[in-house]
Structures are given as structure tokens and as C-alpha cells.
Design a protein that fits this description.
The protein contains seven helices and two strands; from the N terminus they run ααααββααα. The chain has 118 residues and is mainly alpha-helical. The chain has a two-stranded antiparallel ribbon. Helix 2 crosses helix 4 and helix 2 crosses helix 5.
Length: 118
């Protein structure tokens, strides 16, 4: 299994929801309210996220931030990935009264192996 930790990749996955919300809102101030974070925290998160890329993800237009085409494409991909993560967590949580094989791909095989090894 590959190690995707921040120490290994240099990528803080906690920055992704902040980036997505800024794109949705067009403003760090509005994003900070929706995320229940301080404005300086949102600003710092965006600055750290921008360091991962060779070109800017936003253009300033007065008080608003306009995402570049690259930022919009990245947002679409990240929203799909975040949705998949939430769906997988929900599937695991809904498996409380069912066997794991019914809800989580691959987990049933693990359980069968561990039971057969007993």
C-alpha cells in the first residue's frame, strides 16, 4: 500500500475543501463564513495550496477571486474525489447491521481470509 501521508507527498489534504469553497464562493471572506474558519486561516490555506502549482489558480477582480480554467477543472476533479470519499465512509458506517461484503468492495474478502485462517 502506497504511503500518501503529508510527510511523504508534501500535500496537505485538509486544504482541498478550502480551495473548493473559495472557487464556489469567489471570495475568501464568504468561504471563511461557510467553512466556519477565520479569514486569515482561509487565506493561509489558499496560499499553501497555491504553492503546489506552477501557475496561479485565481485572478483578483476587486474584492473577488476569479478561478482560472485550470482551477475550475481541478475543482471538478476534486469534488468527485471528495464525494467518493464521503460515499465510502457512509457505506462503511451503514454496514453496522450487515456483513461487510455487502457494502464495502474488497472488505468481504479480507474478512473471509481472516475467518478461514482461524
Amino acid at each position: 500500500m502506497k504511503n500518501y501521508s503529508r510527510a511523504t507527498t508534501g500535500i496537505d489534504l485538509n486544504l482541498i475543501p478550502v480551495f473548493i469553497e473559495i472557487v464556489r464562493c469567489g471570495s475568501m471572506a464568504k468561504a471563511s463564513v461557510r467553512l466556519e474558519m477565520s479569514r486569515p486561516a482561509v487565506s493561509l490555506a489558499l496560499k499553501r495550496f497555491n504553492l503546489l502549482f506552477d501557475e496561479p489558480l485565481f485572478f483578483r477582480k476587486g474584492l473577488y477571486l476569479e478561478p482560472t480554467e485550470k482551477a475550475l477543472a481541478l475543482t471538478r476533479s476534486l469534488e468527485i474525489l471528495m464525494g467518493d470519499i464521503h460515499e465510502n465512509i457512509a457505506a462503511v458506517n451503514s454496514a453496522k447491521n450487515k456483513t461487510p461484503a455487502q457494502n464495502v468492495p474488497g472488505l468481504g474478502n479480507i474478512m473471509q481470509r481472516s475467518e478461514s485462517s482461524l
